[in-house]
Write a structure and sequence with these properties.
Bound molecules: guanine, zinc ion
CATH class of the largest domain: Alpha Beta
Helix content: 25-40%
CATH topology of the largest domain: TIM Barrel
CATH architecture of the largest domain: Alpha-Beta Barrel
Distance between the termini: 43 Å
Largest sheet: 9 strands, parallel
Number of helices: 16
Structural class: alpha/beta
């Protein structure tokens, strides 16, 4: 039994529906077997349970563990390949690196870099685009289980257009996916996701095979890319006979539902937004990726007006890093740049997009995303170094909303002092190396 002491911020009621940022200054959150059983002012909670261990997180902020709804495991090493639009970037940078993950040793190293990168910025839950090789997907799940983070992932499949070493057949995609799902789905905190790379690289038979696997693995998620780049959208429409729009290429195969998470959707049509909403599907908004690849400005207002659920994704490696603080800030910038079409975002909106909204899109809203009693204690302690610009900003913030805005503006991995999943300190899995003396 542990009582965590600190200043807790969360958004249990969506700020997009009138909810406010909740702040418990010098709060106490009591955790038993990984779950929050009681919360309130620290003195009140502590006086009821004087024998509990106390973890003192005063100085800084305690936030719910961040939820990344779109991130690519094989792309850690090629983050920062700038200057190309999507299809060139895939061919010249991303896919050559993805091909290297056929080597199990290489994939194991990248898996440690990937999960370490997530944890370093306070991401505790992620929907992860896996690799094109089953052995590499095993390496990712193995590392996620060792560390204890919540990862939903799977084999990425394609059967056309990409380089030959990344292609498979619909039959192998189903068989290998089922074997992986049997090994990992529902084991500890891992779950399986069915992942065609995008309909551009998948035949109708491949999309049917994905639908069959999704039907056969109860509770599995589905994820893919959609409407990211105008040249991509045009190619998809050329490839599918009678294609009305990008979403219909998935919908015709039964791949649009409450457990579907589509990344990007920058160039969505009203008809597509209506279908996403009616089917309860979600969209992962990946703002640094959209900016870096020049994909476009995300129509957040239109998504929300249609009732489509939206959360944040880092989209590493087109995105410029694992930090959802950076994604939140870039989401804010994009809405500013849209002028009257944009949706002005507050810091509470940004926290919601990076936590509870993500939990909802991944079907985990009952378990994580905020500090309500009954939820798992997934948290990060933001404790900037004394004298750092963020430390100065937090000390001079005029209330929690402003402190949170400064966090989104300034925080990075160096400010994330500790991270917990289900009450266990997962950041301990990656001791930070000492900086070598000069
Ligand atoms: N579309 C298909 N594959 C990818 C990818 O790896 N990254 C992004 N951003 N878009 C994609
Ligand atoms: Zn992506």
């Amino acid at each position: 039994m542990t009582v965590f002491r600190g200043t807790f911020l969360d958004t249990p009621h969506s700020p997009f529906a009138g909810g406010l940022l909740r702040c418990e200054t010098d709060g106490g959150v009591r955790v038993v077997d990984g779950a929050i059983v009681e919360r309130g002012g620290f003195e009140a909670v502590h006086s009821r349970y004087p024998d509990d261990d106390v973890v003192d997180l005063r100085g800084g902020l305690v936030l719910p563990g961040l939820v990344d709804t779109h991130v690519h495991f094989p792309q850690v090493r090629m983050i920062g390949a700038l200057g190309m639009p999507l299809l060139d970037w895939l061919e010249r940078s991303a896919l050559p690196e993805e091909a290297r993950l056929c080597d199990e040793l290489y994939a194991g190293e990248v898996a440690r870099e990937f999960v370490g990168g997530m944890v370093a910025v306070g991401t505790t839950t992620a929907l992860v685009f896996g690799a094109h090789f089953a052995s590499a997907v095993d390496a990712l799940f193995t590392e996620a289980a060792r560390v204890g983070v919540r990862v939903t992932s799977g084999l990425v499949v394609s059967d056309r257009i990409l380089r030959a070493d990344l292609l498979t057949s619909p039959e192998s995609a189903y068989d290998e996916g089922l074997l992986l799902a049997k090994r990992w789905h529902g084991v500890d905190r891992s779950r399986y996701a069915v992942i065609p790379r995008f309909s551009l690289s998948c035949s109708e038979a491949m999309l049917d095979s994905c639908a069959a696997l999704l039907g056969d693995v109860e509770g599995a998620l589905f994820t893919s890319h959609i409407n990211e780049n105008l040249a991509e959208v045009a190619t998809v429409c050329d490839l599918f006979d009678g294609c009305d729009d990008y979403l219909s290429t998935y919908q015709q195969h039964g791949l649009v539902g409450p457990r579907s998470v589509y990344a990007h959707n920058v160039h969505a049509t009203p008809a597509e937004l209506e279908i996403l909403s009616a089917e309860g599907a979600s969209v992962a908004h990946c703002p640094t990726s959209n900016a870096a690849l020049g994909s476009g400005l995300f129509p957040l207002r239109e998504h929300l007006d249609h009732g489509v659920r939206v959360a944040l994704g880092s989209d590493v490696g087109a995105g410029t890093g694992f930090s959802l603080f950076k994604e939140g800030l870039q989401a804010y910038f994009m809405q500013q740049l849209l002028g009257a079409r944009g949706l002005p975002l507050t810091s509470a909106h940004l926290l919601h997009l990076a936590t509870a909204a993500g939990a909802s899109t991944l079907g985990l809203a009952d378990h994580v995303g905020d500090f309500e009693v009954g939820k798992q204690f997934d948290a990060l302690w933001l404790r900037p170094a004394d004298g750092s610009t963020l430390h100065v900003g937090l000390q001079h913030a005029n209330g929690p909303d402003e402190a949170l805005a400064k966090t989104f503006a300034l925080a990075s991995s160096v400010d994330v002092a500790s991270v917990w999943v289900g009450g266990a300190q997962v950041s301990a899995a990656y001791p930070r190396p000492a900086v070598p003396a000069r």
